[in-house]
Structure to design on (377 residues):
């Protein structure tokens, strides 16, 4: 695994993504989700909302890095809030 | 009849899952790891956090090639989609001519990218090329190696020549799938040719058109070989598109960190656009 040049932050990041996917799968098996319409302009499933949440979070991080001097944790905190909002009301 | 749910079929997905993990996910993870480190050699690498992302996002060279890339992809779509539809509408529908047309249309699609680049490089040369020399003889100054506008036009025309067939063939198949009753109804209503196109053919072609737009966007957004062979990105940086900038960074200068950060930004752009097209397509089906 040395050639992959792992670092602790990226390992934590990918573990979190992996856990999210496993968790979502188990959740889906326990309680299959129904497509519904929230504040997003399309009817979305739980997985759709997670994808939209993560994609927007990635762009939010790029925005913070690209145009501001803010600490990156601000972007991460905002992303977590955004993820919770989009999963609940999206 | 009762259906018995059997989730064992999911195991059949496993080979694809493994293949994708091996060919896409693991390299992708490695790129992410590279993008947060300054790597000198295998044993000396240092964590730099988001520094490369900051450098890449504020690099005017990348802004320029990103802008160029969007303009290029926009031009490609604006030319190829209407032209492809027009060709599909005029292609013969029955008989020997239709087969001949299909074969002729498919020929450019079979030619590899670097060969297309070479063909146009020679074709457009101002001294010996059929196109370049003819234009110059006619008194039109044309030199794709020196003039920015000429280089752009050549790269665009080359792409139109190479890929409009794809759009035309997709539209042709879409048109053939329209049942004759629609046309009969239109004839009874004495609909004009434009009305037939606007209210029957275009709506029925919507799905294939979305596929065509998506394929052409993706391909033109990732274009590398053709302009690289034809103009080498020049004159100056006039036709240096994103993937060429990325290759210069990763292979030419061996700046692995910034190149990794940049390729992830590139990936996110493509991911967003593909997702938008995909969502538009699937929701168009539902409506």
């Amino acid at each position: 695994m040395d050639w992959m040049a792992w670092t602790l932050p990226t390992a934590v990041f990918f573990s979190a993504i992996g856990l999210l996917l496993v968790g979502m799968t188990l959740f889906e098996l326990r309680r299959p989700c129904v497509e519904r319409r929230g504040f997003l302009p399309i009817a979305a499933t739980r997985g759709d909302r997670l994808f939209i949440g993560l994609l927007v979070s990635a762009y939010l991080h790029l925005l913070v890095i690209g145009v501001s001097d803010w600490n990156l944790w601000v972007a991460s905190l905002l992303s977590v809030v955004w993820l919770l909002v989009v999963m609940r009301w999206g | 009849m009762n259906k018995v749910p059997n989730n064992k079929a999911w195991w059949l997905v496993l080979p694809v899952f493994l293949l994708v993990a091996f060919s896409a996910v693991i390299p992708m993870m490695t790129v992410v790891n590279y993008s947060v480190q300054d790597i000198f050699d295998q044993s000396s690498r240092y964590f730099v956090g988001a520094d490369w992302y900051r450098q890449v996002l504020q690099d005017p060279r990348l802004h320029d090639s990103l802008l160029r890339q969007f303009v290029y992809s926009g031009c490609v779509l604006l030319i190829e989609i209407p032209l492809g539809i027009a060709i599909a509408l005029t292609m013969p529908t029955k008989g020997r001519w239709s087969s001949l047309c299909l074969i002729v249309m498919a020929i450019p699609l079979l030619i590899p990218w670097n060969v297309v680049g070479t063909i146009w490089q020679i074709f457009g040369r101002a001294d010996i090329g059929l196109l370049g020399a003819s234009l110059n003889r006619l008194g039109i100054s044309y030199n794709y190696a020196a003039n920015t506008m000429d280089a752009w036009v050549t790269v665009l025309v080359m792409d139109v020549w190479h890929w409009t067939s794809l759009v035309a063939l997709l539209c042709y198949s879409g048109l053939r799938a329209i049942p004759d009753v629609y046309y009969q109804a239109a004839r009874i209503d004495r609909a004009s040719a434009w009305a037939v196109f606007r209210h029957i053919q275009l709506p029925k072609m919507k799905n294939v058109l979305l596929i065509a737009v998506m394929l052409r966007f993706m391909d033109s957004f990732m274009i590398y070989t053709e302009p690289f062979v034809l103009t080498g990105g020049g004159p100056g940086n006039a036709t240096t598109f994103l993937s060429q900038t990325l290759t210069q960074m990763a292979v030419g200068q061996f700046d692995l960190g910034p190149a990794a950060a940049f390729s992830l930004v590139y990936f996110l752009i493509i991911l967003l656009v593909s997702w938008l097209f995909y969502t538009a397509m699937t929701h168009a089906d539902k409506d």
About this structure: The beta strands of chain B are 37-39, 45-47.
